[in-house]
Amino acid sequence: xxxxxxxxxxxxxxxxxxxxxxxxxxxxxxxxxxxxxxxxxxxxxxxxxxxxxxxxxxxxxxxxxxxxxxxxxxxxxxxxxxxxxxxxxxxxxxxxxxxxxxxxxxxxxxxxxxxxxxxxxxxxxxxxxxxxxxxxxxxxxxxxxxxxxxxxxxxxxxxxxxxxxxxxxxxxxxxxxxxxxxxxxxxxxxxxxxxxxxxxxxxxxxxxxxxxxxxxxxxxxxxxxxxxxxxxxxxxxxxxxxxxxxxxxxxxxxxxxxxxxxxxxxxxxxxxxxxxxxxxxxxxxxxxxxxxxxxxxxxxxxxxxxxxxxxxxxxxxxxxxxxxxxxxxxxxxxxxxxxxxxxxxxxxxxxxxxxxxxxxxxxxxxxxxxxxxxx
Length: 375
Hints:
Elements: E1 3-9, E2 19-21, H1 22-38, E3 43-50, E4 56-64, H2 72-81, H3 87-103, H4 117-123, H5 139-149, H6 151-160, H7 166-191, H8 195-203, H9 213-225, H10 229-235, H11 240-250, H12 253-262, H13 266-275, H14 279-284, H15 292-304, H16 308-315, H17 321-349, H18 355-373
Antiparallel strand pairs: 1-2, 1-3, 3-4
Helix pairs in contact: 2-3, 4-6, 5-9, 6-7, 7-8, 9-10, 11-13, 12-13, 15-16, 16-17, 17-18
């Protein structure tokens, strides 16, 4: 199942770092879009599409109140429809869009095929850049960024026709396109494994403010891989929590430890304690900004401390079937361990003892305890 996480929003209705199912995201973005159109208000919201493993498979910016799209999935469909790809990439794109479409509530499915004038203009712009889709092991870092990278050119061209100062706009556009081409080539090098070369080229780009959020995320990931944490924090406008969150998602404990020493924070202390399996330290940490992921981490920590009641309380903050199933399995397995242990004790009291049965029950208990340990 795919999900949506807004990471930066200019609207109070779309809360940052709250994971939503596709149906929920469609409902709320459709409602907000309608409200904002009615009051002639516009806003933007950056978001990720996450897969079952909470890995980002697409990143984009939703324009709310613009009338460009009815909801977040409609927005993605419009944006991706304008990208021309090779056969393999087109197949991946279709598969992704089909998966999204299946989860859209029936009453929100777009069936009339209508687009605004701006959208039609955008769809008909042909791009000469060849986008590179990431492989499975690089999807977290690069997947959405490359898909979104080429959209800017289409948006820029659509603004030329309405510009009052055509000559100045064309000049600015040419400069922007050259920058975009340079950035695109750099990202392609990163995707092909040349992270060092890509990082060197990105560092040489003076117009850092021209990078989109998706491009900044790729750049930030490269900086993290090279342990250039101060530069990564600067890139994110001196918001170390954004960098820390990415490191935590990567699961690189050494990098997380180094970053926490350089930029100490309650969030970092909590995440590091989790990855180092210091459950008691994790629970004692105060001032932590709780997200769905951290509620899940805390619930898991309580299970490791054999505190099922507390684990259930943390799980109640979020809708996570896998987590609830894990807690249920833990309860069931623990009960089975207690019952088997009781049978072993009873068999040992018998005279004469059935050694084979005792051994069999002991082996069964060990297996149950191992299962409990590995949950």
